[in-house]
């Protein structure tokens, strides 16, 4: 069933990037309405709408805005267009087709938070997009939507585009702030929170592109419309991304709460797998959130979800709460990538582990060393020299990282631990089968090749600890 | 003074410090790398994590929160309850120590830091004996980052202390972190080496053997070293130091925490400026000139000879033709003993403050902050002697005839003085040729010095001095703080410590104990004031 | 590898690379009024420097450090953190191949192998004629058109190994067909005759 498009209403419309087209379709009316209200009223409105952040964490935007100290003089708004989470591309689609919707959202959010300067932090790989957005910003300035005395209200807002340079960790809010300040993108410790002490030590709000793009709609279409879409705790429309070997990969808009099966097989969405293959695994919220088993596995005979049982999990609904029942960390970016039944799960694990190992910023010990260790272990497993013991090691390492247990400064480590932990847990059978198919001493051979002295020095042979160390090689 | 509860124990601590600092001050061994009380908090090593009791979000009852908190980041608050002795915390410590060892080279046999290494110590206390790492290790190169420091990048644990030190304390920012993730390396900009006066401190800060001092490289194993609590004689700042010695050889100096003077730091001039103590050309034999030739003298006969000759010189005019030059390198006790002796035999003798060596200007760190008050910055003083103020106080106490060194030299040149006792003790040359010519006019010249110098040509008595490391006493620094220093090594063979000799010269018998003499000094010269003994650093802080 | 010592105290003249021209410095200065601190102009400065020189040379880092009033080590810190900046000369056109999960599932690995074979270079290397350099990057956010690759600024979607010949032979394979903003470009050295 096709849903009405709000966020994506201008996708496919000719000349949709120009301000004339946008205004012709009712654009900037939301901003005009907002600028007639008081900033605090808008914050209340957004709180009532329960607009949850679309960047991955799902934190309510209105609550975030209300953390700003009331007696502040300078406020910064950072727009997080550093979309680096594989396989998300909804922000890109939005900005490519409808840059002014984002700019209107920036204006409304800026006015609500009394922002003085808004920085649009865009990753440098959005090469074409930068030119599109810069043109749109210039058009907005020319039309009086940025700059001094906007729409005659006396409110002044400057909007600058800031290009990143290829770092996933700069999508984390304090990593973005550090990168904006001209330093390496190492996330900061919290407290102090960005709302109190953020960019340049001033109160700062960091919001995702899609979150801001929702604002004009809340204002023009009204709160009731907004609350009518979505599930209990997850309101509003959402842009889902479907990618992988499906018939129609792309970005689709629908209210929150759609199931994975619908997104993969629905006629209006993924339209089924290419070549009729079955699904082995699905990453429904971007790589960081975790993995679901696909319909290669038997159907669950009951309604109860049991992550330990090897059942098809494609009925998981994509809103902010249901994924947790299946063991996922959360909704994330609601961007699906489908792993077909003939893909090697070991290669998938290596790809995921490599991503986090190379994108880890390197501050926290667990993340820096843990992600690289997992990558090396995963590579060895893929090269046919793995052991059952390695799977246990992987599972344990994933327990020892993360911002949620308080072990790391930012959420990248949770994002690294969760998918690998779940891949090892949910697809253990397949891993064990591959290991079983190896030559019996392939692993021990490889380990001895890497480190010949450590386990074979005759002089250490008699020492109990050396014997114990050698035993770990055999395990 | 808030009270917090750590592992069930009530601990009273200072306000405004993190829990980690409070725990360390209470004597607990909490592992930590990136935290240092003198640097900003980054909470990046994740070793110091603790469990904290927090109000439950719904019931508001206090219970152990399910997540861990960095103890270096959480400030103390009255009644806060935390624990380090729990399953979660110990598990985290074990795992983090395992992570640190994943890529660490097996360098202990060749690493300078062995014996005082916090990777060794923490692995022993908090880590596991077996590593599960069987992959290829990440190997980083060794870098020559400065004239006095080497960086072994493969040993680095990326605590970031050296980088923050260079940015915050020295403000020269030569060190930086490069690359990302586990390819992180500490590095300097090629062509801009680590070269500022405070750079030696990064070697102390480094918890492992990544940053090593070229001066100490491969010289000595630290478990053979014994330390003495001393004061650096390099300048008038009077930074308190540890002198590490083995078998009477000083191998290195390390700063000693001093909340009022140098906090945790010391400058390179003092740190590497002790080598003169072991110079080959140190004087090691008292000599008397009989006729034109030097003849060796015995220490026992010197006090009598000196007393006789000075009394004789003072007979005519009650000592107006006698002078004593008190070097600002002497300790207060020694200066007082010498002044007492001279005024005893020659009541009108002139007491002269020796020449003050000055090198350049005061250098203030952090760089670029000219008006920084001394309490919050580090100053390398231009005045290169440790005890000018102490000597001034002593001379002031005695009153009477006092001269500046310039006037003394002028008057000596005119032949005014018949006898003079000149104390040197400077590490560098301190007598100009003109000054030597002036001193040549003194009939009976006693030179008490470390090295040979121009006045020796015409001196009658030459007494070898002991260096500061071989003496005990106290120095008064530029802010008027009187700081005691211990003897680190025995005096060079053939040399008697200055204090001991001057003690005997004054007619005292027995062993010279600086503390005893200081007591007498304190009553006699109240202006010297109380000694300042800095607080001891907590045992497990580093 | 502590059997190798790298000397950081001195650097050979020929390793310094080109310096920033006055025009480039002037362009970097125009970014100062966007931010409350000079240091925040670091990323724009590095982008412009790389566009002007081709890579971020040591001399360029010196120049940026002087302009922004930070130490050269701080500039090196930032430049090495990000994958976009090259520390050694690169070719005219940089091919950035996506290596993330979706593109790999859609045949990205085979594409990469083909490019390496065709051009004869590995990652972070440049062809002998200086035309193409190769690097891989994580998700370029074009997952609906995998496997994808960037050549300089232009994105090539759904690239199959058989398309490579045509793409690499096309001299305009890095030209965009939309109006461009030159905000992060190196300034033209000579003023335009209007």
Kindly give the count of domains of chain C.
2
Number of strands of chain C: 5
Quaternary class: heterotrimer
CATH architecture of the largest domain in chain C: 3-Layer(aba) Sandwich
CATH class of the largest domain in chain C: Alpha Beta
Cα Rg of chain B: 28 Å
Helix content of chain C: 25-40%
Counted by DSSP, the helix tally of chain B is 13
Flag low-confidence runs of chain C.
Answer: none
- Given helix and strand content, the structural type of chain C is alpha+beta
Uncertain stretches of chain B: 370-375
**Beta-strand percentage range of chain B:** 15-25%
Number of strands of chain B: 26
CATH homologous superfamily of the largest domain in chain C?
Answer: Glutaredoxin
Q: Radius of gyration of chain C, rounded? A: 19 Å
> Averaging pLDDT over every residue of chain B, what do you get?
92
Query: Can you tell me the overall shape of chain B?
Result: elongated
The separation of the N and C termini of chain C measures 58 Å
Written account of the structure:
The complex is a heterotrimer of chains A (475), B (542) and C (194). Chain A is of the alpha/beta class and 475 residues long. Chain A has four domains: 19-227, 3-Layer(aba) Sandwich (Rossmann fold), CATH 3.40.50.11540; 237-341, Ubiquitin-like (UB roll) (Roll), CATH 3.10.20; 344-438, de novo design (two linked rop proteins); 439-474, no CATH class. Chain A is built from 20 helices and eleven strands. A five-stranded mixed sheet of chain A has the order 6-5-11-8-9. Chain B has 542 residues and is of the alpha+beta class. Chain B contains 13 helices and 26 strands. In chain B, the strands form seven sheets. Chain B has an eight-stranded mixed sheet. In chain B, strands 1, 2, 3, 4, 5 and 6 form a six-stranded mixed sheet that branches. In chain B, strands 7-8-11 form a three-stranded antiparallel sheet. In chain B, helix 8 (332-345) packs parallel to helix 9, helix 8 (332-345) packs parallel to helix 12 (498-505) and helix 10 (405-413) packs across helix 11. Chain C is of the alpha+beta class. Chain C has two domains: 13-81, Arc Repressor Mutant, subunit A (Orthogonal Bundle), CATH 1.10.10; 93-169, Glutaredoxin. Chains A and C meet through helix 7, strand 3, strand 5, strand 11 and helix 13 of A and helix 2, helix 4 and helix 5 of C. Strand 7 of chain B pairs parallel with strand 1 of chain C, so a sheet runs across the interface.
């Amino acid at each position: 069933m096709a849903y009405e498009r709000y966020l994506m209403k201008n996708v496919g419309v000719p000349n949709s990037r120009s301000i004339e087209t946008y205004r012709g379709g009712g654009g900037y009316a939301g901003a005009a309405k907002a600028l007639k209200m008081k900033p605090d009223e808008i914050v209340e409105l957004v709180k009532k709408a329960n607009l949850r952040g679309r960047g991955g964490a799902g934190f309510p935007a209105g609550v975030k805005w209300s953390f700003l100290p009331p007696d502040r003089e300078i406020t910064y708004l950072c727009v997080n267009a550093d979309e680096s989470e594989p396989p998300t591309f909804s922000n890109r689609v939005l900005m490519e087709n409808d840059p002014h919707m984002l700019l209107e959202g920036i204006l409304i959010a800026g006015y609500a938070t009394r922002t003085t300067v808004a920085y649009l932090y865009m990753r440098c790989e959005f090469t074409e997009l930068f030119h599109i957005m810069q043109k749109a910003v210039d058009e907005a300035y020319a039309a009086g939507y940025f700059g001094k005395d906007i729409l005659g209200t006396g409110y002044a807002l400057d909007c600058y585009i800031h290009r990143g340079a290829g770092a996933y960790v700069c999508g984390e809010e304090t990593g973005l702030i550090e990168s904006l300040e001209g330093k390496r993108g190492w996330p900061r410790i919290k407290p102090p929170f960005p709302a109190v002490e953020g960019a340049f030590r001033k109160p700062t709000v960091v919001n995702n592109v899609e979150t801001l793009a929702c604002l004009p709609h809340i204002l023009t279409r009204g709160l009731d419309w907004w609350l009518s879409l979505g599930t209990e705790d997850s309101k509003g429309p959402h842009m889902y991304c479907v990618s992988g070997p499906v018939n129609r990969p792309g970005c689709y808009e629908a209210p929150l709460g759609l199931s994975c099966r619908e997104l993969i097989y629905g006629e209006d969405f993924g339209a089924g797998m290419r070549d009729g293959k079955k699904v082995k695994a699905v990453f429904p919220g971007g790589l960081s959130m975790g993995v679901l088993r696909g319909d290669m596995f038997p159907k669950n005979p009951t309604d109860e979800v049991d992550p330990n049982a090897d059942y098809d999990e494609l009925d998981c609904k994509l809103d902010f709460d249901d994924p947790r029942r299946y063991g996922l960390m959360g909704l994330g970016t609601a961007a699906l990538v489908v792993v077909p039944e003939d893909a090697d799960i070991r290669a998938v694990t290596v790809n995921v582990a490599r991503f986090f190992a190379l994108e880890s910023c390197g501050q926290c010990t667990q993340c820096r060393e843990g992600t690289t260790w997992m990558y090396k272990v995963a590579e060895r497993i893929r090269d046919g020299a793995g052991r059952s013991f390695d799977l246990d090691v992987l599972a344990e390492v994933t327990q020892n990282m993360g911002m949620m247990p308080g072990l790391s400064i930012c959420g990248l480590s949770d994002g690294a631990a969760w998918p690998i932990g779940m891949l090892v847990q949910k697809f253990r059978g397949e891993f064990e089968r591959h290991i079983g198919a190896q030559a019996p001493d392939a692993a021990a051979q490889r380990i001895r090749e890497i480190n010949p002295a450590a386990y074979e020095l005759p002089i250490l042979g008699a020492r109990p600890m050396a014997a114990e160390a050698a035993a770990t090689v055999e395990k | 003074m808030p009270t917090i509860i750590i592992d069930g124990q009530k601990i009273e601590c200072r306000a405004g410090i993190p829990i980690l600092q409070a725990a360390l001050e209470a004597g607990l061994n909490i592992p930590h790398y990136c935290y240092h009380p003198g640097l900003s908090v980054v909470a990046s090593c994740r070793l110091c994590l603790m469990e904290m009791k927090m109000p439950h979000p719904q019931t508001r009852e206090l219970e152990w929160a399910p997540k861990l908190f960095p103890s270096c980041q959480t400030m103390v608050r009255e009644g806060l309850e935390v624990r380090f002795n729990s399953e979660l915390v110990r598990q985290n410590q074990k795992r983090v120590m395992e992570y640190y060892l994943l890529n660490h080279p097996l360098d202990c046999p060749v690493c300078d830091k062995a014996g005082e290494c916090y990777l060794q110590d923490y692995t022993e206390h908090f880590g596991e004996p077996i590593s599960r790492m069987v992959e290829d290790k990440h190997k980083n190169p060794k870098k020559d980052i400065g004239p006095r420091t080497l960086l072994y990048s493969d040993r680095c644990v990326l605590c970031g202390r050296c980088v923050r030190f260079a940015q915050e304390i020295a403000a020269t920012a030569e060190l930086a972190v490069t690359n990302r993730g586990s390819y992180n390396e500490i590095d300097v900009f090629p062509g801009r080496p680590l070269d500022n006066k405070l750079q030696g401190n990064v070697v102390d800060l480094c918890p492992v053997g990544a940053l090593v001092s070229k001066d100490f490289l491969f010289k000595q194993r630290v478990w053979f070293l014994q330390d003495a609590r001393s004061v650096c004689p390099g300048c008038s700042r009077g930074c308190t130091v540890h002198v590490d010695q083995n078998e009477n050889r000083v191998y290195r100096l390390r700063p000693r925490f001093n909340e009022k003077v140098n906090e945790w730091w010391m400058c390179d001039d003092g740190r590497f400026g002790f080598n003169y103590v072991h110079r080959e050309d140190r004087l090691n034999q008292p000599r008397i000139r009989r006729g034109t030739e030097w003849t060796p003298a015995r220490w026992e006969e010197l006090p009598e000879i000196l007393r006789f000759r000075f009394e004789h010189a003072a007979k005519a005019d009650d000592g107006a033709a006698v002078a004593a030059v008190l070097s600002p390198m002497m300790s207060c006790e020694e200066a007082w003993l010498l002044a007492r002796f001279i005024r005893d035999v020659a009541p009108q003798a002139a007491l002269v403050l020796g020449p003050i060596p000055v090198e350049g200007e005061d250098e203030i760190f952090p760089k670029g902050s000219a008006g920084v008050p001394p309490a919050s910055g580090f100053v390398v003083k231009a005045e290169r002697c440790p005890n000018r103020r102490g000597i001034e106080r002593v001379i002031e106490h005695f009153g009477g005839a006092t001269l500046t060194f310039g006037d003394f030299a002028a008057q000596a040149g005119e032949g005014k003085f018949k006898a003079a006792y000149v104390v040197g003790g400077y590490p560098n040359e301190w007598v100009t040729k003109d000054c030597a010519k002036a001193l040549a006019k003194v009939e009976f010249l006693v030179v008490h010095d470390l090295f040979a110098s121009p006045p020796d040509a015409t001196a009658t008595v030459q007494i070898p001095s002991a260096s500061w490391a071989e003496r005990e006493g106290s120095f008064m620094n530029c802010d008027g703080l009187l700081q005691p220093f211990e003897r680190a090594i025995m005096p060079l063979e053939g040399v008697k410590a200055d204090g001991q000799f001057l003690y005997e010269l004054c007619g005292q018998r027995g062993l010279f104990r600086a503390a005893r003499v200081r007591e007498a000094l304190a009553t006699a010269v109240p202006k010297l004031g109380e000694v300042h003994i800095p607080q001891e650093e907590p045992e497990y802080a580093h | 590898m502590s059997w190798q010592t790298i000397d950081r105290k001195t650097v050979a003249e020929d390793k310094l690379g080109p310096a920033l021209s006055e025009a480039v410095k002037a362009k970097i200065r125009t970014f100062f009024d966007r931010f409350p601190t000079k240091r925040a102009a670091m990323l724009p400065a590095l982008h412009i420097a790389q566009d002007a020189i081709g890579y971020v040379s040591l001399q360029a880092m010196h120049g940026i450090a002087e302009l922004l009033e930070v130490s050269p080590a701080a500039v090196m810190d930032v430049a090495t953190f990000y994958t976009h900046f090259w520390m050694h000369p690169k070719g005219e056109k940089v091919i950035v191949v996506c290596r993330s999960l979706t593109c790999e599932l859609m045949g990205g690995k085979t594409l990469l192998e083909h490019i390496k074979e065709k051009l004869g270079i590995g990652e972070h290397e440049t062809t002998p004629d200086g035309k193409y350099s190769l690097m891989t990057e994580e998700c370029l956010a074009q997952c609906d058109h995998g496997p994808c690759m960037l050549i300089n600024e232009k994105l090539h979607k759904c690239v199959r190994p058989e398309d490579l010949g045509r793409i690499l032979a096309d001299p305009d394979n890095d030209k965009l067909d939309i109006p461009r903003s030159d905000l992060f470009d190196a300034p033209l050295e000579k003023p335009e005759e209007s």
